[in-house]
Amino acid sequence: MAQKPILEMKNISKEFYGNKVLSSVSFTLNEGQILGLVGENGAGKSTLMNILFGMPVISQTGGYTGDVLIDGQKVLFNSPFDAIAAGIGMVHQEFSLLPGFTATENILLNKEPLKYNFLVEIFGSRMQTLDYEKMRQEAINAINKLGVNIDPDMLISDMPVGHKQFTEIARELERANARIIVLDEPTAVLTESEAEILLKALKKLAKEGVSIIFISHRLQEVLDIADKIVVLRDGKLVNEVETSKTNMKQVVEWMVGHSVEAKAKDSLNKKISDEVILSVKNLWVDMPGELVRDVSFDVKKGEILGFGGLAGQGKLGIPNGIMGLFPAGGEVIFEGQKLKLGDTHSAIKKGLAFVSEDRRGVGLLLEEPIDWNISFTAMQVQEKFLKKLLKGLIKWRDDKKIEEIAKFYINKFEIKCTNTKQTAQQLSGGNQQKVCLAKAFVLDPKILFVSEPTRGIDVGAKRLVLEALKEYNKEHGTTIVIVSSELEELRSVCDRIAIVDEGRISGILPPTADLEEFGMLMVGSSKQN
Amino acid sequence: MKENSINIKEKKNFSQFIKNFIDAAGWPRIIIGIFLILLFAMTPIAKLKLSTSLSDTLVRVGMNAIMVLALVPMVQSGCGLNFGLPLGFIAGILGALLSIEFNLTGLKGLFSAILMAIPVAILFGYGYGQLLNRVKGDEMMIATYVGFSSVSLFCILWLLLPFRSPVMVWGYAGKGLRTTISTQKFWQNSLSDILSFRIGETFYFPTGMFLFFALLCFLIWAFFHTKIGTAMTAVGSNPDFARASGVNVDRMRTLSVIISTVLGAIGIIIYQQSYGFIQIYNGPLYMGFPAVAAILLGGASVHKANIGNVIIGTFLFQGILTMAPSVINSLLQTDMSEIFRIIISMGMILYALTRKTKGNR
Fold first, then answer.
1. Residue A130: per-residue pLDDT
2. Is CATH 3.40.50.300 what the domain over A259-351+445-529 is classified as, yes or no?
3. Contact: A380, B230; criterion CB under 8 Å
4. Residue A212 in contact with residue A118, Cβ under 8 Å?
5. CA-CA 20 to 30 A from A262: which of A96, A346, A501, A512?
């Protein structure tokens, strides 16, 4: 294999609104090399690729620092078109194909070979017609280059997912005669056999001199295919290593980091009763993007149970399904009684509460004041903050009590606001999350589900939120189920941590377990055992 | 030097005050308010009597205010502006016709009209609400056509329904309702005249009508301070939040549609008692639009409205609508009042709907 570096990225740093997402990342890609880019969600993989591909989102948010070199020449892409012209192709997670067009038409879209006719003399070159025969030939060439079998005349809408993926890759190959192809989670939608064909095709491409950057959370695939692995964590390059010189365990360790020894000791001494408060059997939840296939688990009274796993694997679907926000099935038994799925009102009434991961969409009344946000659910379900007039015939809102409770939580959680009447949309993310927590605490729940409690909030608020949850658990004995993408966070508060992978629980571990064990469960390697 | 700085400070305070006032009232209301005052100021030039003009304006405000109030519940529950208000009007007309059919007069006649209209309005509102729950996101468009088609349907029914009262049916056939039916001999002004007073020859104040409007305003205000009213507001503000808090979103929306339709029915009856005529057939077709224009003018948005918006909006809109055509007519020596009225009212709706504010006031 030729060892000429085709792409170099040097000291790439990027900030989003003062939030550093990449700091000084450098790596090189040689001709005909396959580079596996791995890292947890939010490690900076997508941002790095967006910089490479000149996505407008980068320049709109203040650009980046560092250099991108192609063939040793410094380049600056202002738009994806520049990147394409330089021979970079990108296959995104979501398909960008025209469903009503054939494979050929999609592959050659906007660069079709044209035929002359007499109208050109009158109306100019825009009147040229498409040379279908030549198009078909070129499409077949591209498909053959991939080494797969796709009918060039088939409509995209009739194709199985795998073929769509191949068509997309063929298009990137054809376009610009790409020399570098970036594939973002190409196997996520494929079946195992399809994925195998794809990997084979990629290897074939690499032999022909095309360089490939391969992003996947299925570590085994990356190890199988890549010549070199680049590991990112929290925006920093952890390691750049030849695949032959490493193994899965090591890579996982690099991915999740090993800087956590701070696991709270008190949870070890904490006594948790054997009483099961919530028992879930064969739960499925149809939540788009977070499908839960078959999940069974027990929650013990007074414990903090964590759900971890990579994004899109279904961990968020679990609380959403139990609370009745998405269609769900299976059996959920709460305190010995069967819970009717899909009935949010009765779930809350029985003592379940939920802090949604979708703060702005589900968690808050953005246009209403803070005190309304905090008290609304308790008012509607538990009839708190109401004055009964005319022997309960009229349930009058008790604005005074609402304001009192809001003031209480504003002080307790240090919510930064002008007064209780400020609307929720004017608060920062962290303070909005505190309002959401207050809303759940006001309900006095027996079991509290918290989804992504620290997503998108600053460090100070993060600590306060986690402390508040811990304290609440300790003082009230409330059972808490936390769903989070951040393993560190789960390890610092939970008594047990379940890892969800592809809609199923792949294992439950104590927080003191080795990071690699967690990592193995996340990347789905233990399923085979 | 010192004096100078104090002067500047005072100026600053004053400009700050002006700024706050503009922020609070909003430019559109200030401009239209100034225009309205100008129109009143021009009455002597146009050889109109100021007292008559004021009185006319007030009567029209009283006549229309409840129909504007009827829009509030649906805006608050997120169903948008109720362009289907004619459905409520039809319920009101039915009540009014029944009361005349039974030969009821005075306040008794008026209130029995209202009482008979309410069950019909509840029924209509329920079905209308079910329909709107199936077309979330497109409520206003669908509502407009619900209004149109229900008016057309009742054009047929007005001919077929077995009303017998000779005041109402066509004289030559003995069946089928007339296009306009006078309420004069039954209950015209029976509500307006309660505690009403006159100042001079030409100024008349319909106290009873305003008291009744105030009562309904109070009821709506109170409703939005109850548990259900709070839930309704939350549904309008963020239906996903409401659902996650265990609120039945569809039921709240249906309830808001029912309240709106009932208020529409009451509104048209009050309108008829003051106007003196029941207009049927195509009469109610466009009567929802002025109400919509008024509430938007009052500063409501498509998903936030309050009673202040109703009162300010009705006064400004009806004020302009009463004053502008008559002033322009007498200045230009023509009679185009109806055309002006349409241009002004439709123009205001157009203006108000294009303002995509996020309901800040």
1. 81
2. yes
3. yes
4. no
5. A501
